[in-house]
Amino acid sequence: MTNVVEIKDLTYRKNQKYILKDVNLTLESGKIIALLGENGAGKTSLMRVIAGLAKNYRGEVTVQGESDPAKRKANLSFTDKLSGFGSTTKLSSIVDFYRNIYPDFDEEEFDQLRTFMNLDLNLRLGQLSRGTKEKLIIALTFSRRAKLYLLDEPFSGIDAMARKKIINSILLWKEEDAPS
């Protein structure tokens, strides 16, 4: 198997505090991997570095052999908590944004996920529970044809029954045709 992510000697500081120090990591293609750690351990920061969203780090980070952050973004799908959208933003507008900004956005895949997650695109972001926001994030993330999918605490706020259905669907989807 090839490596989808390679990290060598990664150090990331924020406000003069080390968030990540001398991290070395290799992730093989075709695997589902969980990154576990305590709150504040740097899991989200690591994903933001991999996704090309964090700046001012030292070390080597490649995704599919690409070290340029802009090119790394093209190879992966990571939805970062929808923080750029206000509470009055309609879900349909968020989907339109993703559709317009990502050329690999798969409309058919999103429609299937939207139906599966029971998402009403006429609702506004502020009307959603924490779990429903996570379902939207999962649907948006997996609606791209990417080589790597990064999910940051994807099941926080999602009830146990829905969590089990989503995990089983992800496993089935991976078996059928997912790259990593």
TrEMBL record:
InterPro entries, sorted: AAA+_ATPase (IPR003593), ABC_transporter-like_ATP-bd (IPR003439), P-loop_NTPase (IPR027417)
Pfam family for this entry, one: ABC_tran
Record domain ABC transporter: where: 5-178
Statement: the UniProt record of this protein carries the keyword Isomerase: no
UniProt keyword annotation of ATP-binding present: yes
Origin: domain of life: Bacteria
Keywords: ATP-binding, Nucleotide-binding
Example GO molecular function: ATP hydrolysis activity
Protein's recorded name: ABC transporter ATP-binding protein
Organism encoding this protein: Lactobacillus corticis
Lineage: Bacteria, Bacillati, Bacillota, Bacilli, Lactobacillales
